[in-house]
């Protein structure tokens, strides 16, 4: 993508079934509704400094990994919805809000690593809908009870355990 790109047009690469790898320019601030249905997309490392993700990788069944940069304070609606090939996800401490269906349908994620000591605001219980039965949500040491009793997080209490130091 061009080095001067700061944001994208909606659905710019939607349903590009042959797209497998993409790299983003430094300084890109938003990726909203851009790769929906890019079934073969395997790699799309997010640039540092990005501030908005919304429906970014929806239905990207082959996406193998995605690192959420610490520049994000919110992960938008459906960002990773139905990303079947993801196996682990780390949510940095800077994330304050998880909007609906962020990880909905990510049924093969086996572990989430939540780094924020206090639970981020979760819009509703659809954020992790379809979570695998054997998935573990690791929370910071000393934060287990706060997560297990927080609004909308309590639905996932049985998946949680404290991160080992």
Summarize the structure.
This protein has 165 residues and is mainly beta. The protein is 4% helix and 16% strand.
Overview of this protein structure:
The structure is a single chain. By secondary structure, this protein is mainly β. 4% of the residues lie in helices and 16% in strands. It has 1 helix and 9 strands. The model has no long low-confidence stretch (mean pLDDT 91).
If strands are numbered along the chain, what order do they take across the biggest sheet? 4-6-8-9
Rg? 15 Å
Taking pLDDT < 50 over at least 5 consecutive residues as the criterion, the unreliable ranges are: none
Helix run count? 1
Q: Could you describe the largest sheet, including whether it forms a barrel? A: 4 strands, parallel
Q: Span from first to last CA?
A: 39 Å
User: What does the overall shape look like?
Assistant: globular
Strand content: 15-25%
Total strands: the figure is: 9
Class by SSE composition: mainly beta
Q: What percentage of residues falls in helices of 4 or more residues?
A: under 10%
Please, what is the average pLDDT?
A: 91
